[in-house]
Amino acid sequence: MKDITSQYQNADGTSAPLNTRSGFVAIVGKPNVGKSTLLNSLMGVKIAPTSPRPQTTRKGVRGIASTDETQLVFVDTPGVHRPKDALGKYMNGEVQNALSDVDAVIWVVDLRHPPADEDSMVARSIRDLRAPLTVVGNKLDVAKYPEEALRLYTALLEGRTGETASVMLSAQNDVTKVAALRESLAANLPENPFFFPRGAASDQSREQWAAEILREEAMKKLRDELPYAVATRVTDWTERPDGLQRIEAEIVVDRQSHKGMVIGAGGKQLGAIGAAARKQLEVFLNAKVFLGVQVVVIPGWREDTEALRELGYE
Ligand SMILES: Nc1nc2c(ncn2[C@@H]2O[C@H](COP(=O)(O)OP(=O)(O)OP(=O)(O)O)[C@@H](O)[C@H]2O)c(=O)[nH]1
Questions:
Q1: Is 259 marked as binding a ligand?
Q2: Fewest beta carbons within 10 Å, which of 14, 34, 164, 237?
Q3: Is 78 known to sit in a ligand binding site?
Q4: What is the dihedral of CA 256, 261, 265, 268, to 10 degrees?
Q5: pTM score, two decimals?
Q6: What is the dihedral sign for C-alpha 312, 226, 221, 64?
Q7: Which domains are delineated in the chain?
Q8: Is the pLDDT reported for residue 7 higher than 60?
Q9: Is the pLDDT of residue 145 over 60?
Q10: Where is each KH type-2 domain found (predicted)?
């Protein structure tokens, strides 16, 4: 995930002030310990349904928390949010793969109970990761012996060499402690340009999100040629059984003459825009992507309320 930083400026097209920190954070833990609740609290708003709606990004990003200088990108870990097959996934190492790429890991445990087998499995899957790990002892508000419980959980990490911290809190109620956790995570992120525009949320559909990535790439490449911003939309998204994501998208211009500029001589410009967008999508979706991009002319789309609505500008 990290290698794209060398190729990109900030996602909003501005160049990166060198003091920004940005990175990917995974929240793991057995079912029902409060992962979604913690994510919602970390975000400060309710954004993560316990089971994501089908149109939201299934793999990839669950939430983004940005300040002026930092951007925490909370990512999904296959298996971790699906109670039923979670155990199998931990066992076969898929989780491990997904986690090998992140900049920080949060392990949520339930302080009301001592560790169970599932907790030991989670512990095994994260013990050897190099990324800094924070053990969050959750449900402090209703735990009888929180310190003892936390000690038993951290003991499962014995032998771990990576940086490890722990905190006890109530993801539901401890606004201050959750804020402190967010700040400490952000402060420890690597120095990176932002991966997403500052205002990006995570409750947009995956289609809107992908269209936005395409639009940013188009704007970067067309900045000197086109006198105005283009619009983009995803018209079709199919996931093939082999995992390939087939995405059809459009770049919308309002004059025939602009269409040529976007396409470029021999289709070169459009090819470069598509390739750059595809690369980003592949990194974030962690899957092979086919991205087909058409340029369409909608005369006067910027004045046309109907067209604007259709393009997602309301
Ligand atoms: N008392 C108390 N309950 C909490 C706290 N945090 C979460 N819960 C409750 O614990 C239950 C599980 O919370 P979730 O956030 O859905 O847990 P999860 O780990 O995301 O669950 P899965 O999606 O099944 O993996 C819910 O009923 C929450 O309301 C807390 O700090 N205190």
A1: no
A2: 14
A3: yes
A4: -120
A5: 0.62
A6: negative
A7: 2-187 (3.40.50.300), 206-310 (3.30.300.20)
A8: no
A9: yes
A10: 222-299
